[in-house]
Amino acid sequence: MGGAVTGERGSAVLPAGRHTWLGLVAALAALVVVALAGLYADGSRPGALDRRVGPAAEDAGPAWRDVALGVDFLGEPGGAALLVAAASAGALVLRRPRAAVFVVLGPALAVLVTKLLKPLVGRTIHDGSLSFPSGHTAFLTAFALAVALLATGRTGPGGPVGPALVLGAATAAGAAMGWAQVALGAHYPTDALGGWCTALAVTLVTAWLLDRTADRLGRRPVGASSPGRR
Q1: What are the pLDDT digits (tens) for 117-157?
Q2: CA 201, 144, 166, 180 torsion-angle sign
Q3: d(Cα 44, Cα 50) in Å, to the nearest integer?
Q4: I need a surface site. Which of 98, 169, 200, 216 has the fewest CB within 10 A?
Q5: Hey, is 130 helix, strand or coil?
Q6: Count of CB atoms within 10 A of residue 205's CB?
Q7: What's the pTM value of the predicted model, to 2 decimals?
Q8: What is the CA radius of gyration of the chain?
Q9: Region of residue 3 (phi > 0: left; psi between -120 and 50: alpha; otherwise: beta)
Q10: Kindly report the CA angle at 164 between 161 and 166, in degrees rounded to 5?
């Protein structure tokens, strides 16, 4: 990702100086999605990693199942809408319209990509439900990533610390939702991993494209079409 011009009053979604780090993360995440898709295409059984990791989550007791259902709700349409509405409203209150657009667009596109990938990959679970990659995991990862980018954008630490905090938030959210999906029997662990990586790639690319588009529109001179005006 090339360096985008930081918008007026620091409104850029991707802060200056972090494009290289986050661009590398997006590229690696996309490669992981492609590799997992090729490995599990048209499959209907857990892989070696699934068999190693899955039982620990699936054997959770009734109390943990209730927790998993609560986390799962955040990826359902109702829960997701509440999270996105709250974050976008907060961004508007802070007078950051670009941020408000990003917290809606980033998670939405991440989920859309998972929906497009599922029939292409063709991996199924249980009754034949398409499972790779996990849309729930992609949503919560993308949402946490977007919020963390906006929270650390203006005053966050420089160097690799800022991106590490952003990726830490995205990883924690993805791990929580991934665990919930495996505990509820909705996905294999590698489906959750695919959803996490899909969200990283799509959300970061969305942020970059949004910055470039907004900056180009912002550089258009006002009244350029009126040459006689001084």
Answers
A1: 999 999 999 889 999 999 999 999 999 999 998 888 655 55
A2: negative
A3: 12
A4: 216
A5: strand
A6: 19
A7: 0.87
A8: 19
A9: beta
A10: 115
- Tokens representing 200? 């990283």
Integer CA distances (angstroms), 120 to 43, 126, 156, 199, 209, in order: 12, 18, 39, 17, 25
Element counts in the chain: helices (H) and strands (E): 8, 2
Say how many residues make up the chain: 230
- Find tokens 């670009």 and name the residue: 98
Tens of pLDDT, residues 4-48: 433 344 478 877 666 777 889 999 999 999 999 999 999 999 999
Give dist(CA 130, CA 82) in Å, integer: 26
User: Helix, strand or coil for residue 125?
Assistant: strand
Structure tokens belonging to residue 129: 């439900």
What's the DSSP call for residue 172? H
For residue 59, how many other CB atoms are within 10 A of its CB? 9
